[in-house]
Design a protein that fits this description.
Elements: H1 2-19, H2 39-51, E1 53-57, H3 87-96, H4 108-117, E2 122-128, H5 158-168, E3 172-178, H6 207-227, E4 233-237, H7 251-261, E5 266-269, E6 296-300, H8 316-328, E7 332-337, H9 347-363, E8 377-378, E9 381-385, E10 392-396, E11 407-410, E12 419-421, E13 427-428, E14 430-433, E15 436-440, E16 450-454
Helix pairs in contact: 4-5, 4-9, 6-7, 8-9
The structure holds alpha-D-glucopyranose.
Alpha-D-glucopyranose binds next to loops.
């Protein structure tokens, strides 16, 4: 009995963790990672780990007014709404945005070429967010971009064109899919009022209804997995839909079906510990320590996932420094970028992404395909290693605005032969004394982060 109580209390803490933070998901506890057992999945996962840098594209009806994705229709304490409207009016307005979402400049080829030039190697696209609006031509609902304002456009099944464009640029392809669906009568049933993000009717009383939701979810995921060519990652959001929370959608069945169409598929049932969270997803943050299993920090380029009218951008320097820290700790970074309601990546985002890409073209060897090294951090220097053990990399993360020093020094990962500048290959003067190496930087360097090769 006592034991039962303790595990119940633990369970509550775990589920509350996901819920208590508004719309930011916590990472699963690190010791709960479970390596996949299928060889094909492991292989893809290792390939994915080498890529290090990807893009997470949020695009949906929320892009039209440029507001937070889905969350404003959810009834929870932290969510603020326009107080001149009733909830019902607001919700009608929000769902009605489907009739205004007409992205006539939709240009996924531009997206893919911008992201390629930014040095990204994989992508994840929101096929359906919590609001239930499908960015693909689902036969399970009319609530899709293919049946609303954009219906007359030959590219109204947008998922197809997005995946094709990125496929043509050799990206690894991921589909974001929200398990909860706030538009579906099988999840938020109008017979009951809404009480937050969860299913709004008692499943015990209406098991048949819940079963319909499970079927609906299964079939929509099957549409995505079977109708759009190869997909490498199924990224499932909405971790409160889970067995522990009494919302069992039969993940076994879903994953088995998904992998029958997409062998080796990486499944990211985020925040759900176990066999279907093939990598963990700390959100807007970086784990404190190095971790030896697969993970990905998802971080936005502005403050939001989707497009907003007055964004506050992060600088390329900040993104690059974040990436260096993530890579030294063994993770990947997926950067959130929101296409405009017209269907483009806007110039301000392009400019920043280009800055990141320029840096990666010079210093990318310290990032892509590297592995972790036990001593990975000193001051603002992050270390990574070549997989063949031939060299280490020291990435000097220059704080924003800070000038570069004349020399830099550290006490771990000592050079045996030489230290050189990555990119130019220029050998640098270094001296070792008292277990500390000091490297003299060339004069006239650009005021930015850089990486050295340690041999
Ligand atoms: C958070 C947000 C969700 C968003 C996701 C992306 O979980 O709540 O809206 O899609 O982050 O990582």
């Amino acid at each position: 009995m006592h034991k039962k109580l303790i595990s119940l209390a633990f369970l509550c803490v775990v589920t509350m963790g996901v819920m208590a933070q508004g719309n930011v998901h916590e990472q699963s506890a690190p010791d709960q990672y479970q390596w996949p057992t299928e060889q094909a999945v492991l292989q893809k996962l290792h390939q994915w780990q080498d890529f290090k840098f990807g893009v997470l594209l949020h695009w949906g009806i929320y892009s039209v007014p440029g507001i937070v994705e889905s969350w404003s229709i959810c009834v929870e304490d932290w969510i603020r709404r326009d107080t001149t409207q009733t909830y019902q009016q607001y919700r009608d307005w929000y769902f009605g945005l489907a009739d205004e979402f007409n992205p006539t400049q939709f240009d996924p080829v531009q997206w893919a070429s911008v992201m390629r030039d930014a040095g990204m190697k994989y992508m994840i696209f929101t096929t359906k967010h919590h609001d239930g609006f499908c960015m693909f031509d689902s036969h399970e609902t009319d609530y899709t971009i293919a049946h609303h304002a954009f219906a007359a456009d030959s590219r109204c099944d947008v998922l197809r064109y997005v995946l094709d464009a990125f496929r043509n640029q050799q990206f690894m392809l991921g589909t974001y899919f929200s398990k909860p669906d706030w538009h579906s009568q099988y999840y938020w049933w109008d017979v009951y009022p809404n009480r937050g993000r969860n299913v709004n009717y008692p499943i015990e009383k209406y098991p048949w209804r819940w079963e319909q939701f499970c079927q609906f979810t299964y079939r929509q995921i099957e549409e995505i997995m079977s109708g759009y060519g190869n997909v490498d990652i199924l990224w499932l959001d909405g971790g409160w839909v889970c067995t522990e929370n009494n919302q069992d959608i039969h993940m076994d069945r879903i994953v088995q079906m998904a992998r029958s169409h997409q062998p080796g598929l990486i499944v990211v049932d985020r925040t759900i510990r176990g066999p279907y969270e093939n990598y963990q997803t700390p959100e807007q943050t970086i784990p404190k320590e190095q971790l030896s299993y697969p993970w990905e920090s998802c971080i936005t380029l502005s403050d939001d996932w989707g497009w907003t009218p007055h964004p506050r951008w992060k600088s390329p320097q900040r993104i690059v420094n974040t990436l260096a820290e993530i890579v030294a700790k063994g993770g990947n970074m997926v950067l959130g970028v929101g296409p405009t309601p017209q269907g483009l990546i806007q110039p301000e985002a392009v400019e920043r992404l280009q800055g990141i890409g320029r840096w990666l073209r010079t210093y990318g060897d310290a990032i892509y395909g590297t592995t972790i090294t036990p001593h990975y951090h000193e001051g603002n220097i992050w270390f990574s290693a070549a997989k063949d053990g031939s060299r280490k990399y020291a990435i000097y993360a220059l704080p924003e605005g800070g000038p570069l020093p004349a020399t830099i020094s550290w006490t771990i990962n000592m050079p045996m032969k030489r230290v050189s500048m990555l990119g130019s290959g220029k050998k640098l003067k270094h001296r070792i004394s008292d277990g500390r190496v000091t490297v003299t930087l060339p004069r006239g360097m650009q005021q930015q982060s850089f990486a050295l090769v340690i041999e």
